[in-house]
Write a structure and sequence with these properties.
62% of the residues lie in helices and 0% in strands. The chain is mainly α and 121 residues long. The chain has one domain. The longest helix has 18 residues.
Length: 121
């Protein structure tokens, strides 16, 4: 299992994330700072950092923040390609869909429980 890290572990010169899985290891301020570097190619400014930290405290997901940065005017110009982001966005949309969402979540939970009880080979 990969370790998680927070702003104390963040040195401010981090390279762009190589995948959604990698950037999801970060939390809070470290996540927002890394998202800026990955999706916009620059350090987070104070206003942007405060805005996205507030959004996270309101319950917005990391995927929604990555999506918002990517779809911003600056993000479209920068054109970051984060492997796994398109799939993560589709999965998030499926989870929220009125009819499909509950079925999708049930299927995810069912497949997870089968992995947990599957016999070791």
């Amino acid at each position: 299992m990969t370790s998680r890290f927070s702003v104390e572990d963040f040195d401010g010169s981090l390279r762009p994330a190589r995948s959604v899985r990698e950037i999801m290891r970060a939390d809070g301020e470290a996540f927002v700072r890394w998202a800026y570097i990955t999706m916009l190619g620059r350090q987070a400014d104070a206003d942007g950092l405060a805005f996205y930290l507030r959004r996270m405290s309101e319950g917005k997901t990391k995927v929604s923040i990555l999506k918002q940065l990517k779809k911003s005017a600056e993000g479209r110009i920068y054109g970051a390609n984060l492997p796994g982001l398109a799939i993560a966005i589709r999965r998030a949309m499926l989870k929220r869909a009125p009819v499909v969402g509950p079925v999708y979540l049930w299927l995810l939970n069912a497949s997870d429980s089968k992995r947990l009880i599957a016999p070791a080979e």
